[in-house]
Amino acid sequence: MDETILLDSADNVATASKSLVAGRNGAIENIPRGHKIARCDIARGEPVRKYSQIIGYATANVRAGSHVHTQNLEFRSVERNYQFATDLRPVEKSDGDTFLGFKRPSGRVGTRNYVAVIASVNCSSTAARMIASHFDESRLAEFENVDGVAAFVHGTGCGMADDGEGFEALQRVMWGYARNPNVAAVLMVGLGCEINQISWLIESYGLKQGPLFQAMNIQEKCGLARTVAAGVGKVEAMLPVANEFKRSVCSASELSVALQCGGSDAWSGVTANPALGHACDLLVAQGGTGVLAETPEIFGAEHLLTRRAASREIGERLIERINWWQDYVMRNRASMNNNPSPGNKAGGLTTILEKSLGAAAKSGTSPLNGVYRYAEIVDKRGFVFMDSPGYDPASVTGQIAGGCNMVAFTTGRGSAFGSKPSPSIKIATNSEMYGRMETDMDVNAGEILDGACTVEDKGREIYEKIISVASGEKSKSEEQGLGDYEFVPWQIGAVM
Predict the structure, then answer these.
(1) Cβ of 454: how many Cβ atoms within 10 Å?
(2) Residue 443, strand partner residues
(3) pTM, 2 dp
(4) Angle at 486 between CA 198 and CA 224, to 5 degrees
(5) Cα 405 from Cα 475, distance rounded (Å)
(6) Which of 2, 56, 110, 397 is 20 to 30 A off residue 44, Cα-Cα?
């Protein structure tokens, strides 16, 4: 099996590094690249192991050399023996790394300098987009320090309970985007009669309107056209003030990076995710923050994270979120194993357990210092976790609302994703996809698989790319204008 990759000596499957033909390299049937091959006979009902962990159970007798995938491998819930703070490996502290960022009066530091137009409800989304679209490149030409005027609009804000999880999450998202360090000025636009009242948000968070924070609604402004005209005037007044912010040398400790993956394949857990994990360790060593999310995509690997929890309390908060998700999918008559997606499966991933073990590698090796609700402000440094769905735009929206000023996004199938106001760098898991989508990918972690570099080498490259993009270099997604439609607050609860 010299054309396969074995991740741990305890594994009873390996991964085909290239397509295997029946009768060669130990394969007794054709096996696609990236898919699993049985290293030995596996009896029906026996566990299948990868990463030295159980990823599922054989549904039939599997002969050595067989293709192991959806036809003979199934998901089952695995009982976990949770341990806390038993695998603490603090990274060796370092300092001195810097980037060019925007220092805010709050003391926080941004990597971009946006004016945000935030809709409180879907009914004001068109007004918000019209206001933002007025400010094209020609109208922003004189404001060289402003990265743009961006509209953040969504499909909710009404037809919802005026308290509870859904309402609280939406308000956290709105306030989180308003205070993200990549935002210099904010205009909030509402309709007037919606459940998600801007006035309630202002009261709850003790906000005051001023030169860099304004709010209005369509009903008070007597219609759409007048609202758009008034909004344009308000943004025009904000731009000269926002332009006064200039880049200066800032410590890398001020970077907070959302750790994301989407369109994953079998190589995600072998190349890009471990490399991003090493980059996260390098950032944490500098005093920075890495924020892992997508709770359904750590399901089955959470026991590895509880061992890294800095305290039992932190570990139990993570388990509480896992339990919430199991109840959530049950009452919606779904399954945690609904993930992996068809694209993930085509790329060689079979069960959520297998996907989660690879996804958790993005977090590196340092202790878990905090667990946060969706869109909650992250107030701890180091490696932390934020509860979110596995749906990438909704997950990243929560991380940005939590304060992330950068996004690092791994992909194996080729995800075309970008975000505002925090720039996203894309990391390819394999060279074939990188070659097809080079205009979308910032880093090729497939070089690890090609033997051109180590995981640590690529992790260092990703870290340095984060520093460069944080300092103003445009990511591939920014060059293509992505980010205007990827603001997707997680809609929790009933729509009424």
Answers:
(1) 13
(2) 427
(3) 0.97
(4) 45
(5) 14
(6) 2
3-state secondary structure of 53: strand
The SS3 assignment for 304 reads: helix
CA dist., res. 215 & res. 220, Å (int):
11
Residue among 111, 110, 112, 115 at smallest CA distance from 139:
115
Contact 370, 358 (CB under 8 A): no
Residue matched to tokens 């743009």: 148
Alpha helical stretches, state H, 71-133: 125-133
- The model's confidence at residue 269, banded by pLDDT at 50, 70 and 90, is very high
Report the helix count and the strand count for the chain, using DSSP H and E: 15, 21
Q: What's the CA gap between 356 and 359, in Å, rounded?
A: 5
**96: confidence class by pLDDT, cuts 50, 70, 90:** very high
- For 145-149, 162-166, 403-407, 481-485, which range has the lowest pLDDT when averaged over its residues? 162-166
**C-beta of residue 218 within 8 angstroms of C-beta of residue 252:** no
Strand order in the sheet with 109-110: 109-110, 98-103, 247-251
pLDDT in tens, 194-204: 999 999 889 88
**Rg of the chain, C-alpha, whole Å:** 23
